[in-house]
Amino acid sequence: MTDDELQQRLQAHDPAASLPPADPTWVARLLEDAMSADQSTESPGTRGDSLAETRESGTRHRSPLTWLVAAAAAVLIGGVGVFGLLNNDRESGQVPSAGPGPGASVSGAPTVTELAAGAPTQGRCMVPSAEVLSNAQVAFSGTVEAVGADVVSLTPDRFYAGEVTDVVEVRTEPAMMQALVGVVDFQPGQRYLVAATGGEVMVCGFSGAFAPRLESLYVAAFPG
Amino acid sequence: MADEETSAAERRARFEALAPELVESLRRFLARRTDTATADDVLAETLLVCWRRLDEVPDAALPWAYGVARLCLANAQRGARRQERLAARVAVVDPPAQSVPGPGADDGDPRLDEALAGLTGAEAELVRLWAWEQLTPTEIAAVLDVTPNAVSIRLHRARARLRDGLRKIDGLAGHEGSREGRTP
Description:
A: seven-stranded mixed beta sheet; B: Rna Polymerase Sigma Factor, Chain: A; 7 helices; transmembrane (chain A); membrane (chain A); transmembrane helix (chain A)
């Protein structure tokens, strides 16, 4: 028996021969899991940075106590915020300008949706799903007009969710601008799909450069 | 910070370009060596290692990834064996490591399985990498982390032993044609 014949006999007996190709969604999820599961280990740009945790440096090994404290802090901050708003209302009788609120339109001038970039997320990214995306209050596709020091302005061409406006501005502190640009990679003249909840742009793969895959996610999340 | 964000994006892009084609080959690699559930676990583990060690992935990524998968699988099987031992509380000495017949053992060539089982674990793995993954000796060397020369010699020997084994088994079956049907 030659080597070739032996190889053929073995190949005829290949247990993987009947293995169907993997479902692309399953593969995508698998890859996303690998990339996001790793946020706990080290920042990819390993330069021994002991800075605060970023998306890359992750939160996997945090103790439950940390989360508890974080949750308590969030509740406290939320409470103070609400208290402040109520107070403000009572004293001045003015409607507080909800800074990063969705659909804050101005009549007359071009209507603007203002969104905040928010800090880079502390939690793990989940696999972008239409189900999660459908919770977005604002979702649109649009072209970046300008990337400023603290604002990215986009001209939307389609709103999947939220009030239709002429312009969308994503505001962020100048210090955070690089982070935002890094996460979503806003480039002037390019088209993007952007979603936001609570006035903050959703990152972690929910917002990004216009791509058929992302678009189909938006279409699935906002049918009709 | 900008650099880090950029490099993170580049890393992702590189992984996303590299990994999908690895996944398909790795799935097959694992399907040939273990059950479905273990294969899925080990695949996830292997991808995680590839992501973490992305900077070390050579241009010929696949043999390298097979090498990673092989070690991850060995770890998983070691863990599984340990659990089995604990659960069963078997008081006997473990039998010496034998090559495990592929999971597809029931579809077809029992004589080949028998001949493969007659090889040592290392020999059978060489034969599998050669015949099923269809790797060259140099690639096999990358998987097993040995020299290509050693692979060539050992593979040659393993094939010769497999051929011998098959000849014996086939010959035996030929002579005892009436009893062939009893083979499971």
